User: Which sequence fits this backbone?
């Protein structure tokens, strides 16, 4: 994952110099923190997700929608979410976003929503140009140009993916690229939807 580290060049994907230990205190045993690396070991498959039992409620945080309105996870209560943290300059993110767009189109938005939060400092203009260039039509635009989300999530690598249940609790996470085109990815989301609907 060294290619993700930011040495000052915007083309690299390490975005924060300090991990947020407060959130990890919620999502991982203390003994796991000492060996936790900057990104999760991943071969691009959903099998690399770290699933949480029981699910954990993250600290409150806010971000913006495309219209500049403040958004929180409570605004999506009742839906299963895939919270994807990304930036236009992040090579693995560029690879991931078209697949996420197709996944959202395939599964619809009634019960499942991908929430891609851009951490680009340039904000909406950079993201709109990116969506247009890649032909993204099914993902909404969400923004956090000040990276305030770092107060709630331990993000020092992009992309970072967090699964959130209908009650706003994190059920799993993977701070790495995911192959969302793989059948296993769709099966994982459908399984979460089914389990969430039955209250498991």
Assistant:
């Amino acid at each position: 994952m060294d290619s993700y580290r930011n040495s000052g060049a915007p083309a690299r994907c390490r975005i924060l110099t300090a991990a947020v230990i407060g959130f990890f205190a919620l999502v991982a045993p203390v003994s796991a923190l000492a060996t936790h690396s900057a990104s999760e070991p991943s071969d691009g498959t959903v099998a690399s997700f770290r699933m949480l039992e029981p699910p954990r409620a993250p600290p409150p945080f806010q971000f913006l929608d495309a219209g500049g309105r403040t958004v929180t996870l409570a605004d999506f209560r009742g839906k299963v979410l895939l919270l994807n943290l990304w930036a236009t300059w992040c090579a693995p993110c560029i690879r991931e976003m078209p697949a996420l767009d197709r996944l959202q189109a395939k599964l619809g938005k009634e019960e499942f929503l991908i929430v891609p939060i851009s951490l680009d400092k340039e904000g909406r203009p950079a993201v709109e140009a990116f969506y247009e260039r890649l032909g993204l039509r099914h993902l909404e635009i969400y923004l956090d140009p000040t990276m305030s989300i770092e107060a709630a999530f331990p993000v020092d690598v992009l992309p970072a993916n967090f699964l959130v249940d209908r009650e706003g609790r994190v059920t799993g996470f993977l701070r790495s690229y995911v192959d969302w085109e793989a059948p296993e990815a769709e099966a994982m989301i459908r399984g979460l939807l089914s389990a969430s609907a039955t209250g498991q």
In short: The helical segments are 21-27, 30-33, 91-107, 124-134, 183-197. The first strand starts at residue 50 and ends at 56.
